[in-house]
Structure to design on (211 residues):
């Protein structure tokens, strides 16, 4: 909790002193995002790994600090305004890692950051290829590492489709991108599920589908 208060103080200082033109400090903001994501993803905050009694005790005393700092990270991202482009594609990986944490409120509030990244790059270059390439690359390694589930796939699809359909220029390429990512995620999850399965025929089938 004390670390969370300190990180929040860092965030306030960044907004007040290192955001405006002439005072913006890319490295400080980059350090903030990496620090905040590292805090959010630390083992001691992953409540789903604890017993029900311990989970209830922590929630009663502290709440879920992952959702709290996730909201702050989201707000800090939007505060960046035109400086966002400086963090694409480098911040795609850390944001992905954050959204994969299995906490519904956190996922719901932070997945829209991906659409904002797409939009930011598209407005500058008329494509979001850097964002897309980075997300696909990072998604592969994250799912292989045990992250991601069916709920995440469904949330990613529904939230980003809603965002894309509300923007005329990104409607078609955005929907194609969402279909690509959800298709890949589905195959990655299938592949992970059968990695230790004795049925080698199904394992080979999943490998072929993934390739």
């Amino acid at each position: 909790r004390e670390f969370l208060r300190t990180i929040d103080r860092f965030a306030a200082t960044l907004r007040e002193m290192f955001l405006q033109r002439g005072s913006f400090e890319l490295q400080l903001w980059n350090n903030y995002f990496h620090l905040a994501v590292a805090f959010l993803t630390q083992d001691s905050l992953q409540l789903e790994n604890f017993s029900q009694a311990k989970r209830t005790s922590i929630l009663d005393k502290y709440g879920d600090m992952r959702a709290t700092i996730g909201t702050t990270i989201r707000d800090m991202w939007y505060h960046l305004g035109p400086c966002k482009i400086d963090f694409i594609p480098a911040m795609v990986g850390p944001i992905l890692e954050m959204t994969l944490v299995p906490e519904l409120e956190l996922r719901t509030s932070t997945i829209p950051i991906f659409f904002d990244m797409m939009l930011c790059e598209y407005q500058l270059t008329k494509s979001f290829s850097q964002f897309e390439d980075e997300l696909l690359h990072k998604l592969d390694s994250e799912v292989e590492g045990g992250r991601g589930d069916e709920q995440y796939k469904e949330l990613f699809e529904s939230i980003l489709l809603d965002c894309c359909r509300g923007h005329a220029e990104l409607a078609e390429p955005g929907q194609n991108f969402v279909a690509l990512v959800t298709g890949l995620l589905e195959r990655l999850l299938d592949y992970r599920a059968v990695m230790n399965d004795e049925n080698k025929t199904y394992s080979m089938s999943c490998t072929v589908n993934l390739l």
In short: DSSP finds eleven helices and no strands in the chain. The CA atoms of residues 99 and 111 lie 6 Å apart. Residues 171-193 form the longest helix (23 residues).
